Every structure is written in structure tokens, then in C-alpha cells.
């Protein structure tokens, strides 16, 4: 059985587990508790991933895979799933670009959160945090403009990653109230979040 070093609130872990459910391999993954932290290294993770970050997947032969992008593509290949990472050129590049957008939004949102939760108050830089949230806002505008083209029934990894990014905003940044100014994105998000793979991976404290 494969093993996944995880944190229950990590949107990147949610991305991997949503992918695992869509690929039908979630039951073949054992969850290993860890304490991923941007400052304090968890040696349980570092023993398999020198970056000490989650998610880290340990294969049956003991070889580790990281990060979420690599793990998700591995799971899709393992299961023969052909729509998360399309083979066709245009569809593939679109899926990978949307995945990069979702990951970039998550990176920026997490840096904004860490600025308040991980950095001592005397060293916090409000302008830096605001710059990260500008990236999030720009990502939301992009999703709004393309919402009618995004997948639900057979989502690509890009669609799943965007859904995880929006889910993370709901979880950690409810004050943004992003739906109020992005009705098309909100409509698409409601549809994709209803999928069992997303419902079963909603983050919790």
C-alpha cells in the first residue's frame, strides 16, 4: 500500500486526495500523520522529502514522490485515467496551465496567511501580504473570465486545482467574500465542489 504524509488542512493534500478519488485509488493510500510547518521541520517528513513538505507519497518500494503535481500525475498514470492529464496537446497544455494558476493562487494565499500566523508581529510586512492577495484577486478574475469553459463532469487536473484553491479561500479567507464579485466562478465552483471526490476531501481542523 502507498503511504501519504499529510496535513488535514493542506490544500495540496486535498488536491492529491481528490485526484486519488477520481482515479479510484484512494483506498490504496495509507495516511501518515505529520506536522508540516513553514518554520519547524518535521523529521518524519524530512526523512522522505528533503524539503519537509506535504504531500509526500511513499510508494510500495519505499521511493518517495513529491510535490502534489508529481504525485497527481503518477496516480493518473497508475490508474489509466486519461482526462486529468490529457494526452492531446492543446488540452494537455490548458490543463497544466490551469494547474499552475491554481497552485500559484495557493502559494500566494498561503504566504499571505503565514505573514500573520508564522511571522512575529514586529517583523510582519503588510505591503508584502497585500501583494500576495493581489495575485489571488487576479487569479479570481481569470477564473471568472473562463468559468464557462471549465470542466465538471470530467475535470482536468487544472479544474481540480482551481477548485482546491477556491476551497482554500473559503476555509482560510472567508472575509474576501470572493463570490460577491465573481458570480460565474461561484456557479462553476458550486458544481465541481459537489463532486464526491471534492466532498470527501473538504479540509478540517
Automatic annotation (TrEMBL):
Keywords: Transferase
GO BP of this protein: glutathione metabolic process; L-phenylalanine catabolic process
Keyword DNA-binding: no
Domain GST N-terminal: 1-83
Domain GST C-terminal: 88-205
InterPro entries to which the protein is assigned, alphabetical: Glutathione-S-Trfase_C-like, Glutathione-S-Trfase_C_sf, Glutathione_S-Trfase_N, Thioredoxin-like_sf
The keyword Transmembrane helix is assigned to this record: no
GO molecular function, one term: glutathione transferase activity
PANTHER family linked: MALEYLACETOACETATE ISOMERASE
Protein name: Glutathione S-transferase
Organism: Bordetella ansorpii
Source lineage: Bacteria, Pseudomonadati, Pseudomonadota, Betaproteobacteria, Burkholderiales
